[in-house]
Specification:
Helices cover about 25% and strands about 20% of the residues. The chain has about 300 residues and is of the alpha+beta class. Helix 5 runs antiparallel to helix 6. The protein is globular. GO terms for molecular function: acyltransferase activity, transferring groups other than amino-acyl groups.
């Protein structure tokens, strides 16, 4: 699941809380952030007043009503991701709400969702995948996406110290820039500014459900900087990721087997590449795996 389609963020304007007592902070203790929507005039409180900036509040998918979750899915996820990359609405609800919910964060501007980040744990919580990152087009350039990646994602990863953090992005050789999907090269630069490194292996996203093909033409990034994480952890993530979505039989597929073996042999401290080397990442032939192959119990 490629994480996002909006990645040319600048700094986020912030308004500090009025005192040190906790005012100006949300229920998580994080500062309340304000940002004006580009292309709008803000909201005035009375005739002649200066426009006010909408207040951004953080919450989780689990805290939304069903109608609000549907709105987030339709406005942020569906326009941002190709169908083969996207969980169904019911799968999103099942995965990110309830007692075993995976990490989620929704950013609301005056009650309207303007940003979303979803994650998923794999390999016994040794690896965290940045599953989806999407922002309302009207908030792009405000730094919202940058803040989610630089502040919230490390907070999630801190729940399992030393965890590997990875993300999938489009390979510019396979997916050209367009109005709907954005610019893959700009996206790589965005993650590069946040310390991402390329995994120099041919990568393919697993099929996410019956009738859904694997997604060819992808790159895998490492986002964390934890020392001492080995290729075994990356291999365990990949094996778990494919097994959960395609069933354990996927590990016998030659494409997957080569990917897992290549990951295990990598030195994750010194063997990864800067993001500007994306043209040099080797590619592999399409897997040819049928889209309706057997599924595992962990399907999402």
């Amino acid at each position: 699941m490629a994480p996002d389609r909006a990645s040319e963020d600048g700094p986020v304007p912030r308004v500090p809380g009025p005192d040190a007592s906790g005012a100006g902070r949300d229920e998580t203790g994080a500062p309340v952030v304000t940002a004006a929507e580009p292309g709008t005039d803000g909201v005035g409180t009375a005739a002649g007043d200066a426009p006010r900036e909408p207040v951004l509040v953080e919450t989780s998918l689990a805290d939304l009503t069903d109608a609000e979750l549907v709105d987030v899915y339709r406005r942020l996820l569906e326009p941002t991701f190709r169908p083969e990359e996207l969980m169904s609405r019911d799968e999103v609800r099942a995965t990110f709400t309830g007692p075993d919910a995976e990490p989620s964060l929704v950013v609301l501007a005056d009650g309207r969702a303007v940003g979303l980040m979803l994650g998923g744990w794999y390999a016994d919580r040794r690896a965290l995948l940045l599953t989806y990152l999407a922002v309302d087009p009207r908030t792009r350039g405000t730094g919202l996406g940058a803040r989610l990646v630089s502040e919230i994602l490390p907070r999630w990863a801190g729940a399992s110290p030393g965890a590997l953090v990875v993300a999938e992005v489009d390979d510019p050789r396979h997916w050209p820039a367009d109005e709907t999907q954005g610019d893959p090269v700009a996206r790589l630069r965005f993650y590069g500014r946040h310390g991402a490194r390329l995994v120099p292996l041919p990568y393919v996203q697993p099929s996410l459900g019956p009738g859904t093909p694997r997604v060819e033409g992808m790159l895998l990034l490492r986002l964390d900087a934890n020392p001492g994480v080995t290729g075994d952890t990356l291999a365990a993530f990949l094996a778990d990721y494919f097994a959960q979505h395609e069933g354990p039989e996927a590990l016998d597929d030659p494409v997957v087997a080569r990917l897992v073996a290549g990951a295990r042999a990598l030195d994750l401290d010194d063997g990864l590449w800067s993001v500007d080397r994306w043209p040099d990442v080797p590619t592999d032939a399409p897997s040819g795996r049928p889209a309706d192959g057997p599924r595992g119990e962990g399907d999402r």
